[in-house]
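Let's practice the habit of predicting before peeking. Look at the sequence and jot down your guess about where helices and strands might fall. Then scroll down.
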Amino acid sequence: MDNISQVIHNCETCAAIKQAKRVKPLWYGGRWLKYRYGEAWQIDYITLPQTRQGKRYVLTMVEATTGWLETYPVPHATARNTILGLEKQVLWRHGTPERIESDNGTHFKNGLINTWAREHGIEWIYHIPYHAPAAGKVERCNGLLKTTLKALGGGTFKNWELNLAKATWMVNTRGSINRAGPAQSEPLHTVDGDKVPVVTHERHLRKNCLD
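Done guessing? Here is the structure:
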């Protein structure tokens, strides 16, 4: 354990993530207690430097009861890409949610989204403009994801699309000795009830910092 502690102390990536995660855990909050895992999500877009493949945005989707993050890179923040990202990363992996929260951007608030949500029986809630606490979960996760991507890129967002899957995984397994990360806060299950394997933080550190 002493060796791991020393590695954490010396690792720039670990230091950046440690600084970014000094916020209230994403999965705390009384208003989410009535929901079971996968039933409520907050979503948003973050903007990053355009890649050679034309990708410039990432749809971020945060499960409200655990803080579990899903990501989906796209060239444009549109309603159609929002639906594609939600279907691939949320509905097909975690089941159809009861509630989705977002801001009032045109990529979220439009007829296509309204029709899709109604057809799937999803309640779509729009945050009050300029009321930051309403989007607290996804905003905190956005900051942590961008910090992690920048750390993996050596201080820049270079190769962010190549690093996105790893950065998402690091956000979801960022627990410490004193506090669990989203993947460790409680056992996760698939929509069929099978337990999802969880990678412990110690193993995560050995893989990324000791090699």
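How did you do? Residues 19-29, 189-211 have pLDDT under 50 and may be disordered.
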